[in-house]
Sequence to fold (246 residues):
Amino acid sequence: MVYINTSPLQDHPSLIRDNLYLVDILVGRMVTQVPAFMNRDDMRSAGMLGLIDAANKFDASKNILFKTFAEYRIRGAILDEMRKLDWFSRSLREKQNKLSRTMIKLERKLGRTPEEEEMAREMEISLEEYQLILGEVGHLGCVSLNETLTDSGEGTSFIDSLADQRTDLTPAAQLENKELTKIMAGILQELSEKERLVISLYYYEELTQKEIADVLEVSEGRISQLHSQALLKLKTKVQIRLGGRE
Fold:
């Protein structure tokens, strides 16, 4: 009797082998956003599971590149592992929520995006303390980007509006993504020049925060602050325009 191995790994060996480099690329980009106790090996193991999952579920008839599909799966697998480890503390989550509430309050009160000094004053802390909080919650950015933009927990996630548009969506979902992307394009123009540059270099040019710091000639810590504040502004504005609650 001949035993035939029909495991997913055997069914899609070339897809996995030819795209192993994606795991290392995404781990390299995300490593600065995870806690110290989650090392590269942990991330790579989770990413490998994501790549295998992508190979199992990939459907070439849907007119989407495997690379694009795999990147979503790998990133998602790493984020899922982060959630399992419960790496973000309650205190940091509370700080992030306070930042969001304050940003929404001042946005509505002023009719514009508040400056760092105005945020600090509203929170009754110094500018230095405000920037320190931005740095502390910086690693929560990758999680918040994958959360949905409504309180119901359903619908489009924030990262979908920054990433390449997928073609395997229903017509209604594609229309939602198109509208959200249009909203995002306008909101991006409301960020400061440095914030726009950080978002562009990080999400489109795929530079690390250290590389961006070298480009802008500021500290890596300052890039982390600008990145956190840019994401906070973007998410706040999207929530307001989509009718999200405080």
Notes: The mean pLDDT is 76. The chain is about 65% helix and 0% strand. The two ends are 65 Å apart (CA to CA).
